[in-house]
């Protein structure tokens, strides 16, 4: 492997391409692609990659891009695509279909604010709107994280114990268009890490069957239970994928969440993607001034790691959730999941802080003000806006 200075989008395209090429001795690769800022560079990279078996096909819409991926996966190929914002919204019908058809497609989603009003900058609302679609969801902090997570996503999604599609998300422009040094793997190593893609329910001329047929309520109920059971197996498969990643590439990617200075923390901040990078600096600054604050970085959103989160928070009795998203009328999405995780724990105060919506800067000062507010609270209140209020 060799270090290379490259953008987040370059890294995503590179990892997708090598994962697809790794399936050249099986049923190959296919991807449908349609451009949308800020992810278009990913598809441009993939269109220029010479696959031994398969190709990336431009289509007329994001809806068609996911339809092509579904057809490819039903044929047994390794399938992937990339999109963002309103492109994700346009393909949502087929996103649901791919999830409940148990097709192990991997999609890179570069987070961008859903419009109108039209906005090119980062907001997690586009991918979080997909939280009920039976897709795994992983959120990346750094460029290296993108590379490693894309490769792990294929291994987890295609595992016979899971067989669910996966979204790998990261911040538009903040990560997608900035450059960092990344340890890029060789094709030989990716070949070692990713076994041939095997979709056991792929279509077969010798044994015809239907996919996505209408079911009775009883059969649908059983189907949903099977999807939930597959989600429950993800944590074990993730840990196995991380261990194998270390044996092949010599480093261990982050797990479902990562704790930072939480051992003696009185208050814990919960963040993900690039907000976690800034929050880490804010925690160090607060610690230097004597404030017992820690950080939990959330990487895996679906399935939501409830038990690991309770363990990571430990003895802390205050949790401040930094949400770069909002569910109108409800507050931040991560806050809602965190409150559910601590149901029955009246001793834990959970406060929501809405930051960076629409791509606004999330500075150390904003996070420090949220942490100071959290430490001074006796009870939780409505979601707070530290950028706009006296918090």
Structural class: alpha/beta
Under CATH, the topology of the largest domain can be stated as Rossmann fold
The unreliable regions are none
Biggest sheet details: 7 strands, mixed
Q: What pattern of helices and strands is seen along the backbone?
A: EHEHEHEHHEHEHEEHHEEHEEHEHEH
Envelope shape: globular
Q: Radius of gyration from the CA trace?
A: 21 Å
| Total discrete domains | 2
Kindly report the spatial arrangement of strands forming the biggest sheet.
3-2-4-5-7-6-12
Q: Kindly report the average pLDDT value.
A: 96
In quaternary terms, these chains amount to single chain
Helix content: 25-40%
Strand content: 15-25%
CATH arch. level architecture of the largest domain: 3-Layer(aba) Sandwich
Q: Alpha-carbon distance between the termini?
A: 46 Å
CATH class of the largest domain: Alpha Beta
What does this 3D model show about the protein?
By secondary structure, the protein is an alpha/beta fold. The chain has 2 domains: 2-249, Thiamin diphosphate (ThDP)-binding fold, Pyr/PP domains (Rossmann fold, 3-Layer(aba) Sandwich); 259-376, Rossmann fold, CATH 3.40.50. The protein has 13 helices and 14 strands. The protein has a 7-stranded mixed sheet with strand order 3-2-4-5-7-6-12. It has a 5-stranded mixed sheet with strand order 9-11-10-13-14, sandwiched between helices. Helix 12 links the parallel strand 13 (318-323) and strand 14. The protein is globular.
Task: Provide keyphrases for this structure.
391 residues, Rossmann fold, alpha/beta, 14 strands, five-stranded mixed β-sheet, seven-stranded mixed β-sheet, 19% strand, 2 domains, single chain
């Amino acid at each position: 492997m060799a270090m290379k200075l490259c953008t987040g989008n370059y890294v995503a395209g590179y990892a997708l391409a090598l994962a697809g090429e790794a399936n050249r001795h099986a049923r190959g690769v296919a991807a449908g692609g349609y451009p949308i800022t800020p992810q278009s560079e990913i598809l441009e990279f993939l269109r220029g990659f010479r696959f031994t078996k398969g190709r990336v096909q431009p289509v007329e819409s994001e809806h068609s891009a996911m339809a092509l991926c579904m057809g490819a996966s039903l044929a047994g190929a390794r399938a992937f695509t990339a999109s963002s914002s309103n492109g994700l919204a346009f393909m949502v019908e087929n996103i649901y279909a791919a999830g409940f058809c148990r097709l192990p497609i991997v999609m890179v989603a570069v987070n961008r604010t859903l419009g109108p009003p039209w906005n090119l900058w980062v907001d997690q609302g586009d991918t979080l709107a997909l939280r009920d679609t039976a897709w795994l969801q992983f959120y990346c902090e750094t460029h290296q994280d993108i590379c490693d997570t894309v490769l792990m996503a294929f291994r987890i999604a295609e595992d016979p114990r899971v067989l669910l599609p996966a979204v790998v998300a990261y911040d538009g422009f903040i990560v997608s268009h900035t450059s960092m040094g990344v340890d890029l793997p060789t094709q030989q190593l990716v070949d070692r890490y990713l076994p041939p893609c095997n979709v056991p329910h792929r279509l077969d001329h010798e044994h015809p069957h239907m996919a996505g047929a209408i079911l009775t309520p009883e059969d649908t109920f059983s189907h949903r239970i099977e999807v939930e059971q597959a989600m429950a197996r993800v944590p074990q498969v993730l840990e196995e994928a991380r261990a194998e990643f270390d044996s092949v590439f010599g480093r261990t990617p982050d797990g479902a969440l990562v704790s930072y200075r939480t051992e003696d923390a009185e208050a814990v901040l919960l963040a993900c993607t690039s907000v976690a990078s800034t929050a880490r600096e804010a925690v160090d600054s607060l610690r230097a001034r004597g404030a017992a604050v820690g950080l939990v970085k959330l990487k895996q959103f679906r399935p939501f790691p409830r038990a690991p989160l309770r363990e990571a928070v430990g003895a802390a009795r205050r949790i401040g959730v930094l949400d770069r998203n909002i569910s109108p009328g409800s507050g931040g999405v991560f806050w809602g999941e965190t409150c559910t995780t601590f149901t029955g724990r009246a001793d834990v105060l959970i406060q929501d802080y809405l930051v960076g919506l629409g791509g606004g800067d999330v500075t150390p000062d904003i996070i420090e003000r949220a942490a100071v507010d959290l430490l001074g609270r006796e009870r939780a209140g409505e979601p707070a806006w530290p950028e706009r209020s006296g918090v």
